[in-house]
Every structure is written in C-alpha cells, then in structure tokens.
Amino acid sequence: MIGLSQLQIAGDASIEPGGTGRAIVLTSPEVRNILIENLAIGDSLQLCEGLRIVGEAQVVKLLD
What pTM did the predictor assign? Predict the structure, then answer.
C-alpha cells in the first residue's frame, strides 16, 4: 500500500467498469518520492479503495 492519492481523469470524463482511459495520479511529495524510486515506465499497479481493488493502471510517464 502506497498511501492516499487522487486520480484525475482527463476532461472530467468517467471510466466505466471494464473500460479504459487516461488519468493522472496526484500524490503528496512523500508518496511521490516513494513512487519515483519504485516505479518505471511500463510497470502495472492496482488501484484500490480501502482493501477493494477497483482498477489497474500502467505507468506511461512520470512527471516532476
């Protein structure tokens, strides 16, 4: 578990179950440092709400 993050979907759209889309994950500086050290472009990760997995993501870019 990494910590609290905000998922920002492009253009105020929504992603329906089973669908795909592009989004930006916003984190605190502390969480960002952990992610930068442990993720690489192409890595996959799970998106959770509490203990429930609600989606999967693939890293396509790491922003400063």
Answer: 0.71
